[in-house]
Specification:
Blueprint: H1 4-18, E1 22-28, H2 41-48, E2 57-59, E3 62-66, E4 80-85, E5 90-96, E6 105-113, E7 117-125, E8 131-139, E9 154-156, H3 173-181, H4 187-192, H5 202-212, H6 225-244, E10 285-290, E11 293-298
Antiparallel strand pairs: 1-6, 2-3, 3-4, 4-8, 5-7, 6-7, 8-9, 10-11
Length: about 300
């Protein structure tokens, strides 16, 4: 599943092309892409046409495009946004206006940008677990901007339960450490909990725990304040490096808006390296079953205490 770096790469690629653009046409090829939308495909198309996109924002693995007010609908106090989740295999691609239909294309937005001209934003999804929806925005409890790419203290209601991610300037380090201190669950399970900190998936949890020398099954509450602080620093370092390298792509599914793959897979130290030598000590990397997934770690560097 695309994690924070992959989704942020998509958001950053979309932003200059969609900010200030007017949506001139919407074509829903497959309404399975609208599972999170409260209305029909016709409702989705009708409510988007002639509206302008005012930005591109992200929190964790969710991204959204704030929309201009729609006088036909009366509007909501904080406005609406087109919110998207890429699921397992979703892609948001930028294409020239009139470009041929993409393989696994589900939804297409034809837009007209005052500088870049006519373009198409195409949502493709092989496994159909991703989704798009028009959603009302709600105020953020801490009154800070909703996420990366926006100055508005608002977030789509479907994203309101998602915690801030560790790269968000408004992320509360002390609150995160306090949450860990109250949890008996394995630290890896806590890292994957999007209500504690968002955007960290299986790949980056394994890499962060390896970097911090912490066994994935260590109960979160047993981490000292120093170890928790070190882990958070490693989470940020791993996410920032992955972001700089365009994310992790093991196949053609995880790509940026131009269809190009990231190359962080070449920098992995633990994830996907079963049986290979630990880059730090040389002991073979282990792979254990974990929550219908797998954990990759070094049994010497990450001893269970």
């Amino acid at each position: 599943m695309p994690e924070l770096p992959e989704v942020e790469v998509v958001r950053a690629g979309l932003a200059p092309a969609v900010r200030g653009a007017r949506i001139v046409a919407v074509t829903v090829q497959d309404d399975r892409a609208l599972t999170r939308h409260a209305g029909s495909a016709v409702d989705f198309e009708t409510r988007l046409v002639d509206r302008s996109v005012t930005g591109a924002a992200r929190r964790g693995k969710f991204l959204w495009l704030p929309l201009s007010a729609d006088a036909r609908l009366g509007g909501t106090p904080l406005g609406e946004a087109l919110v998207g989740h890429l699921g397992m295999s979703g892609q948001l691609l930028l294409r020239e206006s009139g470009a041929p239909i993409e393989r696994h294309e589900r939804v297409r937005l034809d837009i007209d940008h005052p500088v870049h001209g006519e373009l198409a934003v195409v949502f493709c999804d092989q496994r159909t677990f991703g989704s798009l929806a028009i959603d009302a925005q709600v105020a953020t409890p801490d009154r800070a901007p909703g996420g990366w790419g926006t100055d508005a203290a608002a977030v789509p209601s479907q994203v309101a339960h998602i915690a801030r991610d560790p790269l968000d300037p408004a992320f509360d380090d002390a609150r995160w450490r306090a949450q860990l201190a109250r949890k008996d669950s394995a630290i890896k399970r806590v890292l994957l909990d999007q209500t504690v900190a968002s955007g960290i998936g299986n790949i980056y949890a394994d890499e962060s725990l390896w970097a911090a020398r912490i066994h994935p099954e260590t109960p979160a509450r047993l981490l000292s304040a120093r170890a928790a602080t070190r882990l958070l620093a490693e989470v940020r370092a791993v996410l920032e490096k992955a972001l700089a390298e365009g994310g992790t792509s093991f196949d053609a599914q995880y790509v940026n808006v131009n269809g190009q793959a990231g190359y962080f897979a070449h920098s992995l130290n633990a994830y996907g390296r079963t049986g290979l030598a630990c880059p730090r000590c040389g002991r073979p990397i282990r792979r254990d079953a974990f929550m219908n997934r797998s954990s990759h770690y070094c049994s010497r560097c990450q001893r269970r205490r």
